[in-house]
C-alpha cells in the first residue's frame, strides 16, 4: 500500500515604500508547509533553502517549523529547495526548483501544491506520513511506466528492490 501526502511551497512579497540604501525594493518570505495546517514536521526532517549567492549565508537550513526564510531584495531568482524526510530508506529527500518572483506595484502571494507518493513505505515512516495528513492508497492504482502517456503531478517514490 502507498501513501500520498501533500506539501505547499510558496512565497509572499511586498514592495517597499522606497528602496533601501542597498537598493532593496521588496520584502519577501519563502516557505514549505502543510496544506490546511497539516503538521508536516512528522515526516520532514529539515528543509534547505538555497538563496541566490548574493545573500549572506545563502544556504539556509530549517530543522523545525516554520520552514521559511524572510529577506529583502531587488529581483526575483530561481531557488533550489531540498526537503529531507525522516526515514532511513531511499528516497531521503526531494529537490524542488522554485521561482521566487517579485512584482512592481503589486503584492505577491503564491502557493504551489506538491503531491508526494511513497510506494510501500516502512511502517514507521507510513505512520509519520499519516500523522501529517497522508492518505493510504492501493498500489494497483498506479499504471506501469510503459502505460503512462504523461508525467505525474508530483514525484513517485519507490523502494529499491
From TrEMBL:
Coiled coil: none annotated. InterPro entries: YEAST_sf, YEATS_dom, YEATS_domain. GO terms for biological process: positive regulation of DNA-templated transcription. Residues 1-132 form the YEATS domain. It is found in: Nucleus. Keywords: Nucleus. One of its GO terms (cellular component) is transcription elongation factor complex. Signal peptide: none annotated. Its main location: nucleus. GO terms for molecular function: chromatin binding. It holds the Pfam family YEATS. This is YEATS domain-containing protein. It comes from Trichonephila clavata (Joro spider). The gene is Mllt3.
